[in-house]
Amino acid sequence: MNAKILAAVVLVFGIGVGAWAFLAQGADEAATEGQMSATEFSRESPLLLPDILDVVYDAFGQTEEAAIYDRLADVSSGPALEQLYLERVGAMAGGGLNPDQEIHEIELSGMSARSEGQRVTIDAKWRVLGVVGHAEHMHMRGNAYSADLVFEFVEDRWKITGFTLTDVDRTDAGTLERNKDAPPDDAAEASGDKT
Fold first, then answer.
1. Residue 1: which domain range?
2. Low-confidence stretches of the chain (pLDDT beneath 70)
């Protein structure tokens, strides 16, 4: 009788240890994946990438170096963080970026994403539209970009860890077209301006 009780206790203990190990492994994987696996992040990237790019452009709009770095660190890490930070600070030093710029729209125009183990590689194209100031006047300006982005789970979220800008198009990306269905703007009609 004691042998049967001992065998039952060992069996229950073994099942308990096995279940605990299985659940602990699942918890570790969930923590590593940030509640989203590489496959899930890849699949959801068309919805997530515009918000990530918005943070990058918000960082670029900052004027203090610490604020630029901290904001970029929210969405990037390692070499990509360094590259984006140095690009922004270099543009400030060279007068290339105006702190009065205001981004109005970031729009994805194309992308493909694929997961590779614990990484996600995204080939993305997007357009940025905003107001740029030059001395006495402000005007709408837009640029279109293409880049290869690598995302990895760092600390507590998916971040850009690799960034290669592959194309910049400033030709017509910022042209605003007036909605043809909208009522005419009296001031624009009076001046003959048909933007």
1. 1-33
2. 1-34, 90-101, 132-137, 139, 172-195
Tens-place pLDDT, residues 70-79 = 999 999 999 9
Q: What is the DSSP string of the chain?
A: -HHHHHHHHHHHHHHHHHHHHHHHHHHHHHHHHTTS-HHHHHHHHHHHHHHHHHHHHHHHT--SHHHHHHHHHTTB-HHHHHHHHHHHHHHHHTT-S-TT-EEEEEEEEEEEEEEETTEEEEEEEEEEEEEEEETTEEEEEEEEEEEEEEEEEETTEEEEEEEEEEEEE-SSTT-----TTSPPPHHHHHHT---
CATH number assigned to the domain comprising residue 47: 3.10.450.50
51 & 115 share domain:
yes
67 and 152, same structural domain? yes
Q: pTM of the entire structure?
A: 0.67
